[in-house]
Design goal:
72% helix, 48 helices
Length: 945
């Protein structure tokens, strides 16, 4: 009965919001990447150090999350949709967005046959047409609603409703007719079916054929009262009517009603037998019967799937085939998906009706996307685009391709698909797609730092193109802000400035939006040390807007104060802090009133920093006064962090450690943002002070304390971006203190747990260094110790050689370091006695061969050489010098000349690129001249031995 009730209640969500958001990306997992907090090191205070809120319009993150939820709902993925709606309802601060999320969640509950849960949500929402229509539907599904619920629908007129709500309105009217005082009355049934037909026609007119199928199916079952289990008397009457009209078309109508009535009593086997035993007059009747069998059983049963497959016959009317396809696609599970997909693929290869062919491919794509097989989903969507180029489902296929690209992390590709989707839409829908496309490009820029400038510029151009299409000032203001932000992300400050200076922008955009965008530009200028431009921009704003909103005045004064502090103008910084305090004390802006104490604490902290800069000896006293005046936790924590940094900069490590520890103790047990960030920052900085003390100490107690502090941070914050750095430092301390075994344990764990990254390769290098140092430590180089030394060195040699060979090209500096140390480790081996042993000259020659290999790979390969950084050039130079010294010891003066000449040739090739030159060129020239003078050796050209 539950399966049929879901069918009888219809998948109402299939047309929820569909006419306004048909372009949404189905990507619920993107919620994670977009909610990151500001770095803890910046001690974030939302009011002053983040862009001020502008309007209730959704941010790019919220916009795409809503799009994801809406599209998941339209595709029948209600679990995914309800999860996103729930998180949005909990996290968004804007009441309008929260209401929208709750409406979506209520729709999901209706889809999941939980009308009672939907009612609980809807009853607490503000009165609106969307809310009233859905409440009527939920009440009707639960049974006969109270008169006032039905009457509320009468106050609405189709003309006053949005395109999104209009199909819902007619479905609600149809359901009300079903639960009227006379549910079996033919007039009510006709009214109900007429309303469902209107809803379906509306979906057809807006090309939402997928939703139209569901509406028609609800009308198909309208002759049975929704949610009511028929009694035996009704069933007996239906049997009598069926017997009287056994071989007539009317008999088939009674057979369907009887089957539905039996199914509502959970007598599924009897229901199916009624349909199977029919002598069908028309082929259409047979198709309808098997379609109903599929709905009664549900596609988790093979019998139901086989019945639906039989409907997908060339002789079956297309509208029934589409209903069968929709049922198969919307109810497929991970267990049945591949089987259904394969069957539909076979049918698609034989289909000749384009209307059915594209629906087959779309159903294949929907099924595989729903179960997470993105490769097959993309294949099916591409099949639709290639084989039915004129299909009305092209937009749906492009949405699936965009969603699959998004889930795979290919944001630019998702934007390409959405750009194609724009060609199939007009008006408001087109503007929405264009906006989401720009959001994709922006997120792509933030995801890939290497390609960020190009992607950010593309996003800025997309926001510029969508600006004229947006209807409300709030939407245009947010698009302007994001356009400016993208130009700054691409470091194109000139274009960002030109945009804000444009007379068109000034004339068509509200002041709050302009000021918010100006704040972003000024923040970028200040943080990138454009001091004069920052101050000039602020002064210009105050002249253009003499009556500027106090909330923005506070923010811009704050920027001025930060500039003054960074340039050493402590008097000016303190004066500006006093000015901000006066504004907050006398008439705080309403938008800042709730955070007045936090702002005053932050401003006082800035003033304290200015005073301390002028009088460093007053550090402790100044901060103690601030903490006594402002008991607000955030101000106190920030003050300890600032004090710790100042003390660390002066080299007072022990006092700095105490300040950071105090900050950690204040917020260690508070999981709220930003205190969780503060706690991590404070603990890490405290450990850094211990590590700094340990590096200049020989005390094992000091070293042990630092190692424990670093371990404490890594354990407390395992997912923090600095956790692996702390572990590397811990291992390094163990190694430098001679505790090689503990160091190797830490290095081995890091190597095993880290993916391919610079940190993984640094751990590999540290492990090799540890093996090398362990091999040479505390061993007397006597004949008795030769084997022990060489065996230990073999481990280090193997580690360096393995590290040199596979290090990716993107880490050339590590490759250079590993190569140099590989050669040195080989040269450190001790001679062994004949007849099988190695002499000192053999050992030196083997080491020099490796050094030549390193030199050739790093310096003769122009691409690798050009990518070397300062560290890589240092190690490459050391390898050359070690090679020259060893060759000179063997008396091979000609080869020494070649080695030195190789360096000079390399530097000669880097003319115009001084950053690529190897160091110590003058030393090499002097050595080369000395050798040539002493041996009268002619100039030689470098060659590899």
């Amino acid at each position: 009965m539950a399966a049929l009730r879901v069918f009888a209640h219809v998948r109402l969500s299939q047309f929820a919001f569909s006419t306004t958001v048909v372009t949404h990306i189905l990507a619920g997992m993107l919620v994670l990447a977009l909610c990151s907090n500001a770095p803890a090191q910046k001690s974030p205070v939302p009011v002053l150090e983040q862009a001020p809120p502008l309007s209730p319009a959704a941010s790019p993150s919220e916009r795409i999350r809503f799009s994801s939820a809406d599209e998941a709902l339209a595709a029948g993925l209600t679990n995914l949709a309800s999860g996103i709606y729930s998180s949005l309802a909990e996290q968004t601060r804007d009441s309008a967005l929260r209401e929208r999320a709750q409406l979506g969640l209520a729709t999901c509950l209706l889809e999941q046959n939980d009308a009672a849960g939907a009612v609980k949500i809807l009853e607490n929402l503000p009165v609106s047409p969307s809310r009233q229509i859905r409440l009527v539907i939920a009440r009707a599904i639960l049974g006969k609603p109270e008169p006032d619920v039905g009457n509320s629908l009468k106050t609405l007129t189709p003309v006053s409703l949005t395109t999104a709500d209009l199909p819902w309105y007619h479905v609600a009217r149809g359901l009300l007719a079903l639960v009227s005082d006379k549910p079996g009355d033919s007039k009510n049934l006709q009214t109900s079916q007429a309303e469902f037909a209107r809803a379906a026609a509306l979906c057809d007119s807006s090309a939402n054929y997928h939703q139209a199928h569901h509406v028609r199916m609800l009308g198909y079952l309208a002759r049975v009262r929704v949610g009511t289990i028929p009694g035996e008397e009704t069933i007996s009457q239906l049997r009598e009517h069926l017997a009287l009209h056994e071989n007539r078309s009317l008999g088939f109508q009674y057979a369907k009603l009887l089957a539905i009535a039996l199914a509502l009593q959970d007598r599924n086997a009897e229901a199916v037998n009624v349909l199977r035993q029919r002598n069908f007059v028309l082929a259409t009747e047979r198709a309808e019967a098997f379609l109903l069998i599929g709905f009664i059983f549900g596609t988790d049963k093979r019998e139901a799937r086989e019945a639906l497959y039989s409907v997908l016959d060339a002789k079956t009317p297309p509208n029934l085939q589409l209903l069968a396809l929709d049922r198969l696609a919307s109810t497929a599970t991970a267990t049945t998906a591949v089987e259904i997909y394969d069957n539909l693929t076979s049918l698609a290869n034989r289909a000749t009706n384009p209307l059915v062919t594209d629906a087959l491919h779309y159903a294949r794509a929907r099924i595989m996307f729903a179960v997470g097989d993105l490769s097959r989903a993309e294949r099916a969507a591409n099949d639709l685009l290639e084989r039915t180029p004129q299909s009305t489902l092209r937009a749906d296929a492009l949405r699936i391709l965009a969603a699959a690209a998004w889930k795979n992390g290919f944001l630019a590709r998702a934007a390409d698909h959405l750009t194609q989707l724009q060609k199939h839409t007009t008006g408001r829908i087109h503007a929405h797609i264009a906006l989401v496309t720009a959001d994709c490009l922006l997120l792509a820029a933030r995801q890939t730092p290497v390609a960020a400038p190009a992607a950010a510029t593309a996003a800025a151009n997309a926001y510029a193109a969508v600006l004229p299409l947006l209807e409300t000032p709030a939407e245009r203001g947010n698009a302007l802000f994001l356009r400016v932000y993208c130009h700054l992300l691409a470091a194109d400050v000139r274009t960002a400035t030109d945009v804000l200076n444009s007379p068109t922008i000034t004339a068509t955009t509200d002041t709050a939006s302009i000021l918010r965008s100006e704040w972003t530009l000024i923040e970028w200028l200040r943080t990138n040390n454009h001091v004069a431009a920052t101050l000039a921009r602020i002064d210009s704003l105050f002249k253009r807007y003499p009556n500027i909103d106090p909330a923005f005045r506070v923010r811009f004064l704050w920027q001025r104060a930060l500039v003054a502090l960074s340039t050493g103008d402590t008097v000016r910084a303190a004066a500006l802090a006093t000015q901000i305090t006066a504004i907050m004390d006398n008439a705080p802006p309403p938008s800042l009133n709730a955070q007045r104490d936090a702002i005053l604490g932050k401003v006082s902290l800035l003033k304290a920093r200015a005073l301390i800069a002028a009088n460093p000896s007053a550090t402790r006293e100044t901060f103690n006064e601030l903490r006594a005046k402002f008991s607000d936790k955030e101000a106190a924590v920030s003050s300890y962090l600032v004090e710790g940094r100042l003390l660390a900069a002066r080299g007072e490590r022990e006092q700095a450690r105490k300040a950071f520890t105090a900050a950690h103790e204040l917020c260690a047990n508070d999981t709220a943002t930003p205190f969780s960030d503060y706690a991590a920052e404070a603990l890490y900085q405290a450990a850094q002070q211990d590590a700094a003390l340990a590096r200049i100490s020989t005390s094992q107690t000091t070293i042990s304390r630092a190692a424990i502090a670093l371990e404490k941070f890594a354990v407390a914050h395992p997912s923090h971006k600095l956790a692996n750095s702390a572990k590397l430092q811990q291992a390094e301390l163990f190694r430098l203190s001679g505790n090689f075994d503990d160091a190797l344990i830490v290095y081995d764990r890091l190597v095993a747990s880290l993916p391919d990254s610079p940190e993984k390769w640094r751990a590999e290098m540290g492990r090799a260094d540890c093996l090398y140092a362990k091999a040479l430590s505390g061993v007397t180089r006597t004949d008795d110790a030769t084997d022990t030394v060489n065996i230990s060195l073999d481990l280090a040699i193997d580690a360096y050689s393995r590290l040199f060979q596979p290090v990716p090209v993107r880490h050339p500096d590590l490759k250079a370091e590993a190569g140099c140390k590989w050669g040195n480790a080989l040269a450190s081996r001790l001679p062994t006695p004949p007849p099988t042993g190695r002499s000192a000259s053999d050992i030196a020659r083997e080491a020099d061969q490796v050094r030549w290999q390193v030199v050739c790979e790093l310096l003769k390969n122009k691409d690798t050489a050009a990518s070397l950084g300062p560290s890589g050039r240092f190690w490459a130079m050391r390898t050359l010098l070690f090679l020259a010294a060893s060759t000179n010891d063997r008396g091979a003066t000609d080869e020494v000349v070649k080695i030195y000449a190789l360096l000079l040739d390399y530097n000669r090739d880097t003319q115009g690129k001084p950053q690529h030159r190897l160091p110590h060129e003058n030393f090499v020239r002097n050595e080369l001249a000395r050798i040539l003078r002493s041996s009268a050796t002619p100039n030689a050209t470098p060659s590899q031995p």
